[in-house]
Design a protein that fits this description.
It holds the Pfam family CHAD. With 311 residues, the protein is mainly alpha-helical. It contains twelve helices and no strands. It folds into two domains: 122 residues, Up-down Bundle (Four Helix Bundle (Hemerythrin (Met), subunit A)); 131 residues, CHAD domain.
Amino acid sequence: MDTAVRFPTTPKAIRARALKLSARMNVEKAFQTIMRNCLDQIEANENGVIKYHDVESLHQMRVGLRRLRSALGMFDEVLSLPMALRQELDWLVSRLGPARDWDVLAGSTLPRITTALDADAALVRVQHAAADQAVALHAVAGAAVASERYQSLIGRLERWLDERGWRAMQLPADKVRLKMRIGDFASGILEKDQQRLLKRGRKLKGADPEARHRLRIAAKKTRYAAEFFAALYPQKTVRPYVKALASLQDELGLMNDASVADRLLRQLSDGKEELKDGTGFLRGYLASHARLGGGTLRKLWKRFVPLRAPG
C-alpha cells in the first residue's frame, strides 16, 4: 500500500478572516483592526500568486485589495493615506486586474457558453486563445507580487498602520473624531452608503452597462461596510442585509462580466482573422443574453429595497 504523504500541487486560497470589532473600540482602533484584516488577506495569498499562478489565490488577493481600498474610503473623513502609497496601490491593482478579467473570461464565461452549445472549432480556438492570454497575465501578476516594489509597498503600509502615520497630518477636529466610539461612526457610514446605493438603483430599469457598473460598485462598498461592522449589530439584522447585498452584487457581477467579455473578445480578435468568426458569434450571444438578464436583477433589487441598513 502506498503510504507516502501527498501534498497539494497548489495552495489553498485564503479568504478574509472573520472580523470582530468591539463596541468599546474607538474609531482609530477599529480602523487599525479592519486594515490589518485586509492586509492579512492580501499577504496570505502571495505564495499562490507568485509560485503557482493560482486563479483563486489571485482572486482573493484582489478581494483583499478592494476591501482595503474600501476601508480607506470609509475613513477618509478622519484620516488619509499618503498620495504616494495610494499611487502604489493603484499600480498593484493594475498588475492584478487584467489577469483576473481574463481568468473570468477563459474559466467561467466561455465554458458556460460552450457547455450550453455544441462548441465548434471556431469557439474552441477562441477559448484556447483566451486561456493563453490569462496564463501570460498571471506571469505579469506573479512578477509584480514577487518584486521589491510590492514588498516595499506592503512594508510601508504596515509601518503607516502600526505607527499611526496619519496623526502627523491631522487637524484637531479629526483627532477628536478618532476617539469616538465606533458605533456612532459606523451607523453614519452605513446610512450614507445605503443612500448612495438607493439613489443609483432608482433608474435600474433600462440602465446601460455603465449605470449598472456604478450600481455594482455601490453595492460592493455597502456590503464591505456591513461586513466590517457586522459584530456591532444583532445578527438577525445584519445577516439578511448582507445576504441580499451579496445576491444583488453577484447578479450585477455576472452582467459586468458579460460587458468585460465583449471588450476582451474585441481585443482578442484584433488582427487575428482566424478568431473573428468565433469572437463575433460569442459577442452576439452575450449581448442577447444581457438583454434577458434585467428581470432577475430587478427582482433582487425589490427584495433589497425594503431592508434597512444596520444601525
